[in-house]
Every structure is written in structure tokens, then in C-alpha cells.
């Protein structure tokens, strides 16, 4: 079966040298792009076409995350191997082409509940992009239309945003390989918003004193600000220093998240302002100068000073730490990662489930709790719907306004959802404020 192996550091520039014994040796020189996911066939052969594509994405397109593409190509090549198909052989009959056979295979997995619609569609989209690249680079030569791996299509999408009256529809380029994803958020194939109820929040807060100081603050940051887990793991002292009071409130402050100026790794590299309670802000400042954190910081700076034996990805993370000092550091002195936070969250969730088996929330659901409670509070304060959504969109850093509208649709369906955002302020005071009194 085709396997995916992550290589060691890959260099764009190399030098070929002739050794004394008459053999040639390829020596890397510069432009280290880090580790690459690499596909090998069942018999250990290097799969040139998909691996060249992954190299192109990393070295030329400078893709930050190759996991979606590598997983899709792994799934595709495993399917080709099991069905004894060639990646570049396309019979004129559509149903016999490997791309359409793979699509049918994914739909079967969706039907039996082994795969979500959205994941299947992502796999298919990645395979389509791979073939577009192979045709452009002449790895795959198409002599006639009947031998093409798929058909390109242009579809009209209805604009459901706030400016739909100006542009009712927009055109999207796609292919006939696409797998439609159900839009109903109640569908079993799409996980709906799952904000924590007041009871779940109370139960979670009761467990926080039993967790590490870092996880406690990370959980409270997500609940109080709606920050994504990647933003929390890369949160810096520079971001903390941007705190400024909100004019309309004595209890709320604003912070700046920006990869360039404050070092926080936001989605889409967007800069935005977020809100935070004064209780949590003071708790973060207290943790910043704590002996526990400073001890971890010393270990981090030791690694920053001696990075030669580390992987390129780790070196890049350490360089970011050198420019922007992180607030959260692991016990081993490593930059905090989303994987570390998620692992600690899963451990905590397991402990909570011994009390309440229905507590199955993801860490991301804390962000959903912020969004729903905050929107409910804005609407209860008689702020207009559009104004409320615009504020929430800015605070949460949504790139598409349709994402923010999900929170409004959730509230409309949940008429019993009457809990106001003020409960989060009281939670912050209970969880961290009492220490400052």
C-alpha cells in the first residue's frame, strides 16, 4: 500500500561534487524549505509526479500547510493501487476514468458514514488541482478531449452576503468531479455550531483549577476573546502590550493580532483587533512575569542560541520567537503548538466526561461559545443586526461574511438561547479575578 513519509530538510539549491573514489555526491547548499511529505509506492518506489507537485507547492507557491494535499494524494494513490489503475491512463468512457472511479469510491465512504461530505470534496478538489498542474508541466499530455481526466465547469453561486443587492451572483470555476456539501447545518455530515451551554461552562470552569496554568489561561482566552487555537498558541508579549481600554467600557480592552507587528499567527495573515476582559488581561500580565514562565523562557532562549541540530520547521518557529517573545512555552522550552494545546484539552475532556458523559466539546467549540454569546448580547442591547454581525466578524476574524451569518441562524433556531454575554464576564471574574482582589 502507498505510504506517506515525511522527509528530512529539503534544499532548493544543491551542488554536485566528484569524490576521490569516482562517485558523485549531491551536497545541499542553501534555500532550506524544511520537511516535505513524500509518497512511496507499495514496493518502495519514489512517486515522481505527486512528489514533484508537493515540492512545487512548498518551494514555488510557498504553501504553509501541505497536509490537506498530501492526505488527498495518499488516499488517491492508495485507491489506484488497490484497483490496479494508472494515474495517467484515461479511457474515453467517463465511468472508467480513475478520477471518476475515485469520486464514486469517496461517495460510498460518505454513504456508509466513514467520510464527511466536506472531506470528500476536499480530496476531490486536491486531486483536480494535481491534474491541472501535471497538464501544465507536461507530465500528462492530453491529445483529445475524450482523454481528459475531468471537465471544467463554470457555475453561478448566489450571493447571500450583506452586499447581495449589488452583486446577486458570482461565477466559480470548478469541475464535474466536485462533491456537493449539504448546506443545512443540522446535517449529520457537517458538524453544526456547538457552543457550550451555561451548565457546560460551569462544569469546565470548576475543573480549571485542576489543570496547568497554561491550559487554564488558553481556555479562558478562547472563551473570552474567540481566538483560534493557532492564535492562542502563538500569542506574544507584543500582542499583550497593545492592550488599550475600550472607550464605552471600563471592563473591556482591545488587543492587536498581526503576524507582522505582534507575531500572532492569524488565519489568512490578517491583522485584527480583539476584545478581552480586564480580569483576564491582568491574569495574563501576572503570568508573564511568573517564575514558572521565566524558567521555561530560559530553556527556550537556550534553544534559540543553539538551533543547528533542530529541524528547519523548528528553527523557523524559534526565529519567530526571537522576533516576538511568546507568552506560552512548553515545559521543555519549545514554542507552544496547537497540537500540544489539543492534547491537553483531550486529557481534560476525558476527566470531565467521568462526571458528565455528554461533554464531548472540541477546543474550537470555545470559540463558538464566544461568538454565540457575544452576538446574543449585542442583539439584546438593541444594536442592529447588520451592525452586530459586522462587529462580530471583525472580532473573530472571519474572512467571509457567510461564516458570521451562521451564528445568527443558530440564534434564530435556538429561541431558548437567552444567556447573555455578561455570563462570560462573570466567569472571567470568578476564574481569574478573585486572585487580583
UniProtKB/TrEMBL annotation:
One of its GO terms (molecular function) is DNA binding. The keyword Hydrolase does not apply. Residues 191-421 form the Tyr recombinase domain. Keywords: DNA integration, DNA recombination. It holds the Pfam family Phage_integrase. InterPro entries: DNA_brk_join_enz, Integrase-like_cat_sf, Integrase_catalytic, Tyrosine_recombinase_XerCD. Signal peptide: none annotated. SUPFAM superfamilies: DNA breaking-rejoining enzymes (SSF56349). GO terms for biological process: DNA integration; DNA recombination. PROSITE patterns: TYR_RECOMBINASE. This is Integrase. It comes from Shewanella colwelliana.
